[in-house]
Amino acid sequence: MDFLRPTTWEEALAAKADQPESVPIQGGTDVMVEINFDVRRPPALLDLNQVAELREWSMTGGLCRVGAGVPYAVVVDELGGPLPGLAQASRTVGSPQIRNRGTVGGNLGAASPAGDSHPPLLAAGAAVEVESRERGVRMIPAAEFYRGVKRSALEPDELIRAVHVPPATGPQYFSKVGTRNAMVIAVCSFAIALHPGERRVGTGLGSAAPTPRRALEAEELLAAELDWEAPLTPALARRFGELCARAAAPIDDVRGTAAYRVHAIGVLARRTLAWAWNDHLEKRAA
Ligand SMILES: Cc1cc2nc3c(=O)[nH]c(=O)nc-3n(C[C@H](O)[C@H](O)[C@H](O)COP(=O)(O)OP(=O)(O)OC[C@H]3O[C@@H](n4cnc5c(N)ncnc54)[C@H](O)[C@@H]3O)c2cc1C
């Protein structure tokens, strides 16, 4: 197995263009597990750890640009203010060791329906910056990035450079059901982001369909019926939960049944909406 070690982004793009079958490796918390268990044996590994810029984040053009190599620990420590949903989700990933190595870019690269960063990226309206040597940069909205179970819109000669996330303008929450409290892959998960300026609520479902996805009907319901000055009515919260549950298309597997996942998504949706709404009203009253 070849081991490619570019030190600049241009070298990394060139290596991927010349050897599209090479497998990028950042934290390695997915890739090394697959290699150790012989799930795959790529002809080459493309180690991105020497490309320092991938580990940086910045505020650029009103968006928070998070480099593909920024580990969860940094998201938790430094991005809780602008990206509270992503920071909450990052806090639930694996263990401290996994959060030190594992990255949002790697989560996107793996494109698992159970990846914890996807629901908050969907709810916030993020876009993934990908690039190839031949065709340059593409910005892919998160909602178009996930294409199937562990499949994404990334082409074989492309690499993920960063994810661009609008900073929060209202409360955001992420909630995850697991079989225990830590070191657990989601049975299902849900993220919500209030966008008060646009009178809009964003959603993201995890581990509840072949891909992470938004609950569009539920978002439309709130856009039409939510009174942004008033308490949330139980009937609207219930209807929102039902429509989020209806957006789920899960399977039975070792972690949970489809029926349980549908039920749990409804509960998580209702609950996170109530938390976010309380924060919203408290902020208005202050
Ligand atoms: C013990 C354990 C617990 C875990 N718990 C969780 C959990 O709670 N929640 C969760 O979501 N995940 C969990 N994971 C999975 C994993 O940690 C995450 O998916 C993590 O985000 C992967 O990041 P990484 O940097 O380690 O990726 P890597 O393993 O380096 O790469 C993952 C995938 O992304 C591709 N890739 C990496 N960087 C790029 C790039 N720049 N461009 C294109 N492709 C790229 C790789 O080729 C590979 O396909 C766990 C893993 C382990 C081993």
List the helices and strands in order: EHEHEEEHHHHHEEHEEEEEEHHH
The CATH fourth-level homologous superfamily of one domain:
CO dehydrogenase flavoprotein, C-terminal domain
Strand content: 15-25%
Structural class: alpha+beta
- The overall pLDDT average reads 97
CATH fold annotation of one domain: Enolase-like, domain 1
Q: What is the β-strand count?
A: 13
Helical region count?
Answer: 11
| End-to-end CA span | 60 Å
Shape: globular
Low-pLDDT stretches: none
Given this structure, which CATH class of one domain is correct?
Alpha Beta
* Ligands, deduplicated: flavin-adenine dinucleotide
Provide the gyration radius in Å. Answer: 19 Å
Largest sheet: 5 strands, antiparallel
- Based on the coordinates given, report the CATH architecture of one domain: 2-Layer Sandwich
Strand order of the largest sheet: 4-5-10-6-7
Organism: Nonomuraea rubra
Keywords: FAD, Flavoprotein, Oxidoreductase
Protein name: CO/xanthine dehydrogenase FAD-binding subunit
GO molecular function, one term: oxidoreductase activity
Structure explained in plain terms:
- The chain has 286 residues and is α+β, with helices and mostly antiparallel strands.
- It has a domain at 173-285: Enolase-like, domain 1, CATH 3.30.390.50.
- The protein contains eleven helices and 13 strands.
- The protein has helices at 9-18, 31-36, 72-78, 84-91, 96-101, 104-110, 118-124, 142-145, 216-225, 234-247, 258-285; strands spanning 2-4, 23-25, 44-47, 57-60, 63-67, 127-132, 136-141, 146-148, 151-152, 159-165, 172-177, 188-195, 200-206.
- Strands 4-5-10-6-7 form a five-stranded antiparallel sheet.
- Flavin-adenine dinucleotide is lined by residues 23-31, 33, 48, 68, 93-94, 98, 101-103, 105-107, 109-110, 115-116, 159-160, 183, 185.
- Residues 91-117 are annotated as: Disordered.
